[in-house]
Design a protein that fits this description.
Elements lengths: L6 E2 L4 E4 L5 H9 L16 H17 L3 E6 L12 E7 L9 E8 L8 H14 L6 E7 L3 H9 L3 E10 L9 E9 H23 L2
Parallel strand pairs: 5-6
Antiparallel strand pairs: 1-2, 2-3, 3-4, 4-5, 6-8, 7-8
Helix pairs in contact: 1-2
Amino acid sequence: MDMPRYIDTPRLHLRDLRPGDAQDVFVSYASDQQVLRYLGWWPHLSIDDSRRHIGHEIHRWLKKSAWVWALTRPRPNPKADRVFGQVELLPMSYPSEQAHHLRLGYLMASSHWGQGLMSEAVEAVLAAAFKTPGVWRVDALCDVANANSVALLERVGMVREGCMRRAVLHPNVADTPRDAWVYGLSRDAWIRLQQAAPANSADLACAERNR
């Protein structure tokens, strides 16, 4: 299974993480406890921590044990190539070449919250996943207290399937495992969403004209 190394959206350029990104990663999100509140890792204390993190992500891509994209702005934006977040897909079976089920993860610098950028990135990554032969399901685990993530997952069309008790460890919140919502999306449901999108866009345009 191969995922595209580059994904472009109207406002974003998603690409692989690189050693030279350590400063951006550290400053924009990896040292921010607010950003990492509902993630399973502690804030980085130095740029060296971010370098090790990037090295780990590069290694995972090479092994195809995960695909991690850095969020950047497309050129000619003056801040093009400055990393301010990441999105990942994790195969839920081994070998990854035969994985039909992937798990989604994401985070973004708080300076970029509230602009719809993460929804845009996640929708693009979901499209890349479901355009990959053999992928039939993408899901995500979301801390039950993370209302912002719940809203994002529902906005991109994922459906709450249930609650997993004591399923996730978020050390910036508590020392013990926490409950998590399971959100999922199948290839069939994604195709239906794509087929409905033009009609929804037309309805929105009509509504705007009639305002």
